[in-house]
Amino acid sequence: MSGSREGAGEPVAARAPGRWRRTGDGLAAAASGLIDLMLPLRCAGCARPGTAWCGGCARELGGLRKVVRALPVPSGSAAVPPVFALGRYRGAARRAVVSYKAAGRRDLADPFGVAIADGLAGLLQWGPSSSGRAAFGAETVPDLDPAGTWHLVPAPSRAITSRRRGGAHMTRVAGRAAAVLAERGRAAVVADCLVSGAGARDSVGLDPAERLRNLAGRVSVLPRRAPPAGAPVLLIDDVLTTGATAMSSAHVLARHGVPVTAVLVLTATSG
Ligand SMILES: [Zn+2]
Questions:
Q1: Which residues are placed with Cβ below 5 angstroms of ligand 1, an ion?
Q2: How confident is the model over 200-248, as pLDDT tens digits?
Q3: Per the count of CB atoms within 10 A, which of 34, 47, 66, 205 is most buried?
Q4: Which domain holds residue 43?
Q5: Cα 47 to Cα 37, 43, 52, 84, 99, distances in angstroms
Q6: Does 17 reside within a domain?
């Protein structure tokens, strides 16, 4: 773990994993913590008691696959990075993602981070024997340097949305994933360098064209938090729908001189 640059490499969710962790400031976080104490622990996917995320539901996020989608590429954009998902945005996986983002289930950052770490490690094995590669061809293999320090870049979320959720939710997941990778001997840090500006609305309910217009020019890079040039850069998000967020983020990072090696999302919609 490199702590040499401010903002990068901070294992946000790694200090004290578990549901009792104090994770934010302010009333909302305190209220959420109280709710955690009052409600019995249940699986976010199937409501099984006694676990945050059961083994059966975890398998819904165990199938690394390439996502082929007509991504909305901004004019003058650099190459489109390959996009991978761990599961479909339906059933238990969808319920868990929604619970994490909207219902205060911040404890899910831990299993989601493990799933992302497993998925990133899986990208290295994305070889000729992979059924996904056989289907899509060699050009889908991400050019991921196993020896480099992987920089995990969380997708941006609006500041106001992050506050309501008690902290930037994908930063928490990326932090846990980086910590898991580091425990396994792979150099990985978080580069929490993307912000979406005040002009961007929350994207819930927008159609693809509206979503792209909403994001165009509104995702920006914080230079002092950006990965160094030449580093393997992995963009992390929870849901891929139209791909507008991923493309806008990849576009601004490429313009900043740090092209995205691959995008990995927890879930992708089927369309
Ligand atoms: Zn379950």
A1: 43, 45-46, 48, 54, 57
A2: 566 667 666 666 666 666 788 999 999 999 899 999 999 998 888 888 8
A3: 66
A4: 26-268
A5: 17, 5, 9, 27, 11
A6: no
